[in-house]
Amino acid sequence: MKDDLDRLEKELLEHPFDTERRRTYAKALMGAGRVAEAGKQFELLGEPLPAPPSDAAVPAASGLHLVPADAAASAEVEHETIGFDDIVGMEEVKKTVRLRIIEPFKNPGLFARFRKKRGGGVMLYGPPGCGKTMLARAVAHECNATFIGVGISEVLNMWIGESERLLSAFFERARAERPAVLFFDELDALAFSRSKARSEHSRTRVNEFLAQLDGMDADNDQLLVLGATNMPWDVDPAMKRPGRFDRQVFVPPPDASARAEMFRVKLFDIPTEALDFRRLAEASPNASGADIDGMIELAKEHVLDEILSGGTERPMRDADLLAAVRDTEPSTVEWLRTAENLVKYGSGGGQYKELAAFLRTVKF
Amino acid sequence: MAEVDEMNRCDELDILQRKVSACLDVDRHAEARELLRRAFEIDPDDPGTLALAIRFERRVENTERALEVGRRALAVAPHDYETRFLFALTLKDAGRYPEAERLLLQLIRDFPDDPDLIAYYGLLMFYALHVEKAEALGREALRLDAENTIGQLVANLSALSRGDANAASAALARALDDDPDSEVLLNQIGLVLVEQGRYAEALDVFQRLLRTSPNDEDYVDLVIRLRAMSHPLTWISRTAQRVGMVGMFAVYVACIVSIHQLNEHGYTRAAMWTAIAWILIVVWSWTGIQVMQRWVRARGVR
Ligand SMILES: Nc1ncnc2c1ncn2[C@@H]1O[C@H](COP(=O)(O)OP(=O)(O)OP(=O)(O)O)[C@@H](O)[C@H]1O
Ligand SMILES: [Mg+2]
User: Is residue B276, in this structure, part of any structural domain at all?
Assistant: First the structure.
């Protein structure tokens, strides 16, 4: 089992763009009960996380979830792409992204005529679980472009292998697949500020990454470079210079109406009573999209638990969800406090204008 | 077959350890924790993994856990340089200076020309308030390796605590030429500026540091304090601090005398106003900085 995982991981390291291999690897991770890592892989594939094995012990031992690499399994899970319509709320961000990223990409001519520079890459930043990765995938979809995602596990694999060669492989691949979106998730890891670096290694890696980005400059037609991070302050300042990630977009936590809508959309095909979505939204200030996913899972568990332990089958009620909301700490608060330190005491508002404006409007 | 298995196992462990190390380099603690867990699953007693675990626990400031892991690591690899070194640093973190000193001295005996060991020994002496010894050790470390950052840190901290801010700032200016963005250096420069009473400049430095580490509450407190200290309205408080108790007492006596004199010569109103003004000044000189800090915390720093 372990060996299989090992082998798959190594293969993936050799063929980072093989979605079939990645899917197999993700499923194997799932089978081994490493759900969080599997989640990251599925996220990169743009596929929903399958339900975890009901009895983790059985598949982990038997390897039932190991699908051979050549299985036709892909047919049923065919690229279920995420578009803007799948992202709930965030109207402002969508508008910004459309104007500043998608339209320039689709209409380079128009922007050239207005002498509007298209610039380099775009960095999405904001609290965890609020849809940055989702948004990046959606951008690729809206641009009709191939999506090539580089996540933390790719980055780590790169660092223990020949990082230079592997990094340039991503760029080459993106160039070959144009129109393409090359997405660096968790950008802070790949571009960790050199002034904070604890080893010469990480400084060298950042230099390599910078060189790649600059090399791309020559021929970046139909190639969009996106990055996402929770910790923009950890990203090396040189990354934000012109031609690199020179445009930054803040992805805020969902507001009350977006949260209500999220509950509605995500509970759409679940048996429920008539639910008071406004009340749920009001009870969950500062919850992220991922928090809401978690709350719904918690409520489901509660209901199923009750049904299975002798009760009769019943739909989900407001009370189930409200209890789950109460039991969940919103995961954006710590981030918002940190961001407040930056803006309020560090005079960082100039650098992060959208963030500063947002902080003036929320309580946490 | 068994041999092949063993080889794969070593490979996997090696890969995991390199990944942990990379994660620690870039402050990815959640990932590092998960990778460490997997590495321990393969071999709970691997010295390399144990050393990484000490580094991890120190990084997340869990000193108790670091000590625990450290003891386990030493039991497995009592002669390993890194393990012993990391354990000594952990003892230092825990404030157990004599034990840390003993361990570092043993290490220095085994590796007499290692500038890192000597520099950290100096740092330990600095924490234990043996400044002269610290300074000598800092010098020795720098003699072995002029670039040694901990050696430089020790030298600067000792100079500062001797009240020789100029020596520290000259050394820092030289270091800064090589590495203008280094956070460690900036931090020291900030401390020098504070020591020299150049609060506005220190404020700039620490705000810059806060912008790169906004989750560091120490920087927040320092920035707030420096803003209060550099505000024109706290001039009286600062002056009071500078002239000290004796100076304030002299002013106090002078004031009582003058109020008394004014009263004697029939300037009662003037005497009263002088007294009121005096009381206000005294109260503000005691409380000004605190009040200003509250104000700054509420309003922020522009
Ligand atoms: N606007 C949204 N609409 C619908 N679902 C959302 C939205 N935002 C977040 N989610 C849910 O939260 C999950 C996490 O979102 P995503 O991975 O995009 O966040 P992220 O900002 O990239 O987080 P991290 O910083 O932790 O990587 C998604 O899989 C999705 O289910
Ligand atoms: Mg993400």
Answer: yes
For range A159-181, the mean pLDDT: 82
Answer yes or no: is the C-beta of A133 below 6 A from any ligand 1 atom: yes
B179 φ/ψ sector (left φ>0, alpha ψ -120 to 50, else beta): beta
Sheet containing A247-250: order of strands: A146-150, A180-184, A223-229, A122-125, A247-250
Task: Determine contact, residues A122/A232, Cβ cutoff 8 Å.
Answer: no
Residue A61 predicted with pLDDT over 70: no
Nearest Cα neighbor of B74 from B85, B65, B83 is: B83
What number is the ipTM of this complex?
0.78
Query: Could you tell me the residue range of the domain that residue B133 belongs to?
Result: 113-229
Are residue B120 and residue B175 in the same domain, yes or no? yes
Ligand 1: residue whose CA is nearest its atom 17:
A133
* Together in a domain, B155 and B247: no
CA distances from A150 to A41, A174, A184, A206 (A): 10, 11, 5, 15
Residue B126 inside a domain? The answer is yes
* pLDDT tens-digit series, residues B215-250: 999 999 999 999 998 888 877 777 777 777 777 777
Q: Do B220 and A345 touch (CB under 8 A)?
A: yes
Q: How far apart are the first and last CA of chain B?
A: 67
For B52-93, the pLDDT digits (tens) are: 999 999 999 999 999 999 999 999 999 898 999 999 999 988
Q: Which amino acid is at A358?
A: F
| DSSP secondary structure code for residue A223 in this structure | E
Cβ neighbourhood burial of A191 (10 Å; 0-12, 13-18, 19+): buried
Instruction: Determine if ligand 1 sits within 6 Å of the CB of residue A93.
Output: no
